[in-house]
Design goal:
By secondary structure, this protein is mostly beta strands. The chain has a single domain, classed as Jelly Rolls (Sandwich), CATH 2.60.120. It has one helix and 22 strands. This is Pirin domain-containing protein.
Length: about 270
């Protein structure tokens, strides 16, 4: 196979690390906590994709982080965030919160109210160390994602990424990472052209597990990911696919099932 040919490597949901702690039901795409996989430690600057469900009135107590860019993408329910920078916020569906931990922060995250909160915790490695900690929130409605890519995270150097606590457009990240989200209707498809930025450019496609916690073979929405020169990959909820040699590639994501698919597309180095 030619070196510059796009390559797909599926990441089935039932092969992810997962645990049911009662108060927390979680999946780990990459090595995290007690789950360790030498084959799945990171992908470019992307270090963590955890899909968490936290029971009402429970959550992660105050703990420390440093030298990571940490995102919370809320799927359902409400997430209470508190941190050592003085930020207190209740995040709801459509909200994206980013903490640039830099030289160090402490925070806690809890389910707010009487319903479970389902969210994705995403970490990226920053391009430089010893950054001043920062906090950003953005909101992207279902309408903004319906059958189109909503650009929700962009490198802080990108013109679209505004360095403000609250603003429209993508949240800024101190890493070579962009993140797009869509709510894709049945029989609809979207294309995305990966930036042509050298041989190190990568992508990752993840289908959010919206139908409920399922540690077995994935069910729910079904999408097909394709690109010229690569064999198509079919993904169900919770599944993902690594895209290697992605520089300049045109990726197509098609909903081939009978339900709406919530899809995240990462592009990174």
């Amino acid at each position: 196979m030619a070196k510059n040919t796009v390559q797909f490597r599926p990441r089935p949901s039932d092969e992810r690390g997962n645990a049911d702690h009662g108060w927390l039901k979680t999946f780990h795409t990459f090595s995290f906590a007690s789950y360790a996989s030498r084959a799945h430690n990171a992908f470019g600057c992307l270090r963590v994709i955890n899909e968490d469900r936290v029971a009402p009135k429970t959550g992660f107590g105050t703990h420390a982080h440093r030298e990571f860019e940490i995102f919370s993408y809320v799927v359902s329910g409400e997430l209470q965030h508190n941190d050592s920078m003085g930020n207190t916020e209740v995040l709801k569906r459509g909200d994206l919160q980013m903490t640039s931990a830099g030289t160090g922060i402490r925070h806690s995250e809890h389910a707010h109210g009487n319903k479970q909160v389902h969210f994705l915790q995403i970490w990226a490695l920053p391009s430089q160390s010893n950054l001043k900690p920062a906090y950003y929130t953005r909101h992207f409605s279902d309408e903004q994602k319906k059958d189109q890519w909503a650009h929700i995270v962009a490198p802080i150097s990108a013109p679209s990424a505004k360095d403000a606590r609250e603003a429209t457009g993508p949240a800024p990240v101190h890493a070579p990472l962009s993140l797009y989200a869509t709510l894709l209707s049945p029989e609809h498809s979207l294309q995305h052209t990966v930036e042509a930025a050298g041989a190190s450019r990568k992508a990752y496609v993840h289908v959010v597990q919206t139908s409920g916690y399922n540690p077995d073979k994935a069910g729910g929405a079904t999408v097909k990911v394709s690109s010229a020169g690569a064999e198509d990959v079919v993904l169900r909820e919770g599944d993902g696919v690594y895209v290697d040699n992605a520089s300049g590639a045109v990726l197509e994501v098609a909903n081939v099932g009978d339900g709406v698919a919530e899809v995240l597309l990462f592009e990174m180095e």
